[in-house]
Design a protein that fits this description.
202 residues, 0% strand, mainly alpha, 5 helices
């Protein structure tokens, strides 16, 4: 038997293995170099940037009211400090005074009309020989017109007589309520002036 020699093939296999290893390692090296080159451009791998903004400034409080004294010899009014309770009492007093004037004016005007109608009715009754009951009842304030309605000569006269009675009653009630409100507010103002040390002039 003859023996074959395999020694001459070994030098050929060694360079072939080195070439294959270099060919396989070159793409991996290129890929890793490209990833390193593109790494800083990708923001997902960088540390997050935290921006700290200062808190908003608190609003400045409004300046306190300044009272400027009046200059002597000028027409500018002097500063006044008004108590809210005193101002409310003054408002109630003025409101009560207005109610009193309005109510009693309405009552007086309607009563004068009723009295005029009553006196004319009395004169006519004396001329024709009547009793004059309608005229006598019309001279009574507030309740007189309501008492004179049955003695009216017509339905229109009875309606007008009752309307005068309603006006007298409404004016009297309004004036009385206003007088009570005015007196109560005026009394409280006087008491607050004596107890609180405020000198009020009316």
């Amino acid at each position: 038997m003859t023996r074959t020699r395999s020694m001459p093939c070994a030098p050929l296999k060694f360079p072939l293995a080195i070439g294959l290893s270099a060919a396989l390692a070159l793409p991996a090296a290129l890929t890793s170099s490209e990833a390193k080159a593109e790494g800083p451009a990708d923001g997902s791998t960088d540390a997050p940037i935290i921006v700290v903004t200062p808190p908003p400034a608190a609003p400045q409080p409004p300046p306190p009211p300044a009272y400027q004294p009046a200059i002597p010899g000028s027409s500018a009014p002097s500063p006044m400090i008004v108590d809210p309770r005193v101002a409310a009492l003054k408002h109630q007093r003025n409101s009560g005074l207005g109610m009193t004037i309005s109510g009693y004016t309405l009552f007086g005007t309607s009563y004068l009309i009723s009295a005029l109608i009553g006196t004319i009715s009395l004169d006519l009754a004396s001329d024709v020989g009547g009793t004059g009951t309608y005229g006598q009842r019309m001279l009574i304030p507030v309740a007189g017109p309501f008492m004179a309605i049955p003695r009216a000569d017509s339905a229109t006269g009875g309606l007008f007589t009752g309307f005068l009675g309603v006006i007298q009653a409404g004016g009297f009630v309004l004036g009385t309520a206003g007088a009570i409100k005015f007196g109560r507010a005026n009394r409280q103002l006087r008491l607050s002036a004596d107890a609180g040390g405020l000198q009020l002039q009316f």
